[in-house]
């Protein structure tokens, strides 16, 4: 019976209980060590949970028990990078995207698309703006802004974007109230100094002054008028006016083009006429001076010898007359020349002597 197993005899009852107690104590000690290790690990993780990373396009504000940490603005605003903070709820990290451009839509000044008829304007449901010439327009505006002061943006108002919308709507209404309808539709107007004033820039400047007074820490970067139209009741009339304005501008451009073509030609003609008149004046003046000089010389000679000068002048005059006559006919002294309409058409006039006249009855 070599295959039979041999078993040791069981221990006495007291030894069994002692061994069990020892094993239980060892297990409890190991469990306590594990629980302690986990507690230390959880404590480390808890105290390290406040460490965070601030992204390059943002800054952070750190509040401890609800109070902002730091005495000066430079200490209150945490730059990008690793931020060592205590865990929540002891510390709270507020991230502010200061380099991000945000935008809000001001849609309370446009026609409502919910219910109602378009034949009448409901001043409660439909938004509108009133121009300086008592015309009613409707507009949809987008306001783009950046956060310039993170502390003021988060602590000055509970809902800064809502305050921004109200301030933007008020600035739009106040600015357009000083403009007429046509300038508002064109989004620009000309001042007395021939400077062009643009409506978005005027609204942005007025809105920025209002936000600075409120201290919201917001910098308005742009105002975009997505839509600005007359009310449906006046849309057709405004379209007719705009068509006439375009026609006027077209005629004005045509007139300016005609003037640009005509004025240079007129200037050239004027220059030519002035030159011709100046040259004619010079010629006439020179000739007159020569004649006056010649007359003075002849007159001086005439005073010295009147008969000789008179004879010479007479001969010179007769010489000029003879040169201008086409045909000459000499008659005897004392003869008379009778020129009749019949004889004027003939080759030579009739010559009647005094003797023939005396013999005629």
UniProtKB/TrEMBL annotation:
The keyword Hydrolase applies. This is Modulator of FtsH protease HflK. GO terms for cellular component: membrane. PANTHER family: MODULATOR OF FTSH PROTEASE HFLK (PTHR43327:SF2), STOMATIN-LIKE PROTEIN 2, MITOCHONDRIAL (PTHR43327). It is found in: Membrane. The lineage of its organism: Bacteria, Pseudomonadati, Planctomycetota, Planctomycetia, Pirellulales. Belongs to the band 7/mec-2 family. HflK subfamily. Keywords: Hydrolase, Membrane, Protease, Transmembrane, Transmembrane helix. The chain crosses the membrane at residues 24-47. Pfam families: Band_7.
